[in-house]
Amino acid sequence: MSHDKREHVRIPVEVAGEVEVAGEPVSVSTQNLSLGGVALVLEPALSEDRPVRISLFLTQDGIEDPDEEPFDVEGITRWVAQNDAGLHVVGVQFGPLNPSQRVQLERFLRLLES
């Protein structure tokens, strides 16, 4: 177990999604996900402490469930780094989750842990 002081356990998972940058949707993938936030991988850089709106397509083994709505959430960028492929990795802290968002995300994270 990690010794950092994070409130939520991060689970490594790659799912597709979109984030709005300058009014345009930009494709992203995730590096990890938790109840508190997500690490996004994308081409354009985002600045720290920037509000973002994210849509994640919560899939298991790359298969989308046609009955599952995208996970839409607002958050704040907290850190930005660059990976070995030259893409940007952006840590986003989710804003407060409403009850349906929390249920949707908890259900997906439980599937990943099983």
Give an overview of the whole structure.
The model has no long low-confidence stretch (mean pLDDT 88). This protein has 1 helix and 7 strands, in the order E-E-E-E-E-E-E-H. Strand 2 (16-21) and strand 3 form a beta hairpin. It is 13% helix and 43% strand. The longest helix has 15 residues, at 99-113. It has one helix at residues 99-113, and strands at 11-12, 16-21, 24-33, 37-42, 51-56, 71-82, 88-94. The relative contact order is 0.21. It has one domain (11-113): Thrombin, subunit H (Beta Barrel). The two termini are 17 Å apart. A 6-stranded antiparallel β-barrel has the order 2-3-4-7-6-5. The radius of gyration is 14 Å and the shape is globular. With 114 residues, the chain is mainly beta.
Overview in brief:
With 114 residues, the protein is mainly beta. Helices cover 13% and strands 43% of the residues. A hairpin with a 5-residue loop joins strand 6 (71-82) and strand 7.
Essential attributes:
single chain, 114 residues, mainly beta, 43% strand, globular
Distance between the termini: 17 Å
Global structural class: mainly beta
Largest beta-sheet characterization: 6 strands, antiparallel, barrel
Compute the number of structural domains.
Answer: 1
CATH superfamily placement:
predicted glycosyltransferase like domains
CATH class: Mainly Beta
Strand ordering within the main sheet: 2-3-4-7-6-5
- The helix content, as a percent range, equals 10-25%
Instruction: Give the overall shape.
Output: globular
Beta-strand content bin: 35-45%
CATH topology: Thrombin, subunit H
